[in-house]
Design brief:
Blueprint lengths: L2 E8 L3 H8 L9 H5 L2 H10 L3 E6 L14 E4 L3 E2 L14 E2 L2 H13 L5 E3 L6 H11 L8 E7 L9 H16 L6 E7 L16 H13 L1 H5 L3 H8 L7 H8 L6 E8 L7 E7 L2
Parallel strand pairs: 1-8, 2-7, 2-8, 3-6
Antiparallel strand pairs: 1-10, 3-7, 4-5, 9-10
């Protein structure tokens, strides 16, 4: 059967993608960030997953105020990089595993998660930046990707608990798939940041690092936190951290942290990254 071998969480700061695309990764400002992912790039190249379920949020590229789905599962054969106002990123087209995605869709809906199924969708930096951080700059991505977009932009977003439980449902879905697939799940977004208003530039390193501790040791505590607590402690856009709980919910109760990285700043945000072994 298919199995989830590991979970990965990472920030998806758009300026990181620009630094990669413009060849600035060795500049003093950016070098410490990219050095923080070198171990993970080597590790995932050795692990060779067949499929990544990548949890992210769209930034008004595929969706707008005209259509606000809570959970979106991409079921098309491929997804092109989105034009976010300055042209699409020069990265490969994302190739899906449509048969596996269809199985996920059926299992999740029958497990009482009302997924929006999308057969045409461009993917923005929320998805492509984590791919670049983990896989570098290949001509083709070395893994199939199932996009799972979550509304964390427009009120009301799903609760942290709902996201954690969706992760558990994803695990059940994966383990009921009859083909032998090595699956990883990425949770992206965060960490603490706010890009507008009087608290613009907010960084709460204490909260961020406690979140990383609890993600490993006691994710139930994180699932119990309200939107208000996340936004108060780590900024309006810090609520993206609930997407990490989808990743964590898909893993075993007990996991082994293989890599942990935290850096401030990256374009006025905190960058967080963790790799969790699910053996």
């Amino acid at each position: 059967m298919a199995r989830i071998t590991a979970g990965v969480a990472t920030s998806h700061v758009p300026a990181i993608g620009a630094a990669i695309d413009l060849g600035k990764t060795k500049e003093p400002y950016w070098a410490p960030i990219f050095e923080g992912y070198e171990w993970s790039k080597t590790w995932i190249a050795e692990e060779k997953p067949d499929v990544v379920i990548l949890v992210y949020n769209d930034h008004a590229s595929a969706f707008s105020l005209e259509m606000i789905p809570t959970f979106v599962l991409g079921t098309a054969a491929e997804f092109k990089p989105a034009d976010e106002g300055w042209g699409p990123r020069p990265v490969p087209v994302v190739k899906n595993d449509p048969e596996f995605a269809a199985h996920l869709a059926q299992s999740l809906v029958l497990d009482e998660f009302d997924m929006t199924l999308v057969n045409k969708m461009d993917v923005d930096h929320g998805l492509t930046v984590p791919m670049s951080l983990m896989f570098g700059q290949p001509d083709e991505w070395p893994v199939k990707v199932v996009p799972l977009a979550v509304n964390v932009l427009q009120y009301p977003p799903p609760t942290a608990r709902r996201c954690f439980n969706l992760g558990k449902a994803i695990r059940r879905a994966v383990e009921s798939y009859p083909k032998d697939l090595k699956v990883m799940i990425f949770g992206t977004g965060g960490m603490s940041h706010q890009i507008h208003g009087p608290r613009a530039g907010l960084i709460n390193a204490e909260f961020d690092n406690k979140f990383l501790d609890l993600l490993v040791e006691d994710p139930e505590q994180l699932a119990a936190k309200s939107h208000l607590e996340y936004m108060r402690e780590c900024g309006a856009e810090g609520v993206e951290l609930i997407m990490w709980l989808i990743m964590r919910g898909a893993l075993n109760d007990h996991v082994t942290p293989l890599r942990r990285f935290y850096h401030v700043p990256a374009s006025n945000t905190a960058v967080g990254h963790i790799v969790l072994d699910n053996a």
